[in-house]
Amino acid sequence: GINAIHQDYASRVLPGFDAIDEGTEPDDCNGHGTHCAGTALGTVYGVSKEAKLHGVRVLNCAGSGSWSNVLQGMEWVLDSHSSNYPGERAVASMSLGGGGVMQSLLDAAEALHDAQIPTIVAAGNNNDNACQYTPAAAPKAITVASSTSSDQRSWFSNKGSCIDIFAPGSSIKSAWIGSATATYTTSGTSMAAPHVAGAAAMYLQQN
């Protein structure tokens, strides 16, 4: 979810999806999604500072959820884009994951790719082989590992042949929940993925 009133992007928030509360206002009660959104497209902390934002909430306030909810969110992105924004450029950013390979989610990532929606996913924070995690193992997704400020792999970041790119993920400051100006500094491949999503959005805007 997202903190829709955060000044870093509030003027660019469009309708979203909430698989937890079954609504169109994906309120963030955890902070994670807001942080990622701020990194991808925030005016202060973001990469693509003019991109528009559709929040998609598939995890609860504790940051956990079901694969079926994640799949619902991916299907909503695909359906909403084809129905409401045909022909427009879009990027999907997924800062979540879990152990094991779920073929249905890999197929959903491929469907987004085939619809010309680049899908950027976090590699995972287990210091392990990313190919053993979903959606990091998705062949048609862009799987992002985390780097430090000295261009080294973050100690926690997953690795291996499923990694497509590294991006900053250690001690990243971005937007947070609680107010329209809240910020927070945290680490993870979840922080790395939206850097790449923002760069992808900028590329699509210019090409």
Q: Give the total of beta strands.
A: 10
**Overall radius of gyration:** 15 Å
The assigned structural class equals alpha/beta
Helix-strand pattern, N to C? EHEHEEHEEEEEEH
Unreliable runs: none
Percentage of residues in helical conformation: 25-40%
The main sheet comes to: 4 strands, parallel
Gap between N and C termini: 29 Å
Global mean pLDDT: 97
Q: What is the overall number of helices?
A: 4
Describe this structure in words.
With 207 residues, this protein is of the alpha/beta class. Helix content is 28%, strand content 19%. It has helices at residues 32-41, 67-84, 103-114, 189-206; strands spanning 13-18, 53-57, 92-94, 98-99, 119-122, 133-134, 142-147, 165-168, 172-175, 183-186. The strands form 4 sheets. Strands 3-5-7-8 form a 4-stranded parallel β-sheet. Helix 1 (32-41) runs parallel beside helix 4 and helix 2 (67-84) runs parallel beside helix 3. The chain is globular and about 40 Å long. The two termini are 29 Å apart.
Can you give me a brief rundown of this structure?
This protein is α/β, with parallel strands linked by helices and 207 residues long. The protein has helices at residues 32-41, 67-84, 103-114, 189-206, and strands at residues 13-18, 53-57, 92-94, 98-99, 119-122, 133-134, 142-147, 165-168, 172-175, 183-186.
What is the strand and helix layout of this fold?
Blueprint: E1 13-18, H1 32-41, E2 53-57, H2 67-84, E3 92-94, E4 98-99, H3 103-114, E5 119-122, E6 133-134, E7 142-147, E8 165-168, E9 172-175, E10 183-186, H4 189-206
Parallel strand pairs: 1-2, 3-5, 5-7, 7-8
Antiparallel strand pairs: 4-6, 9-10
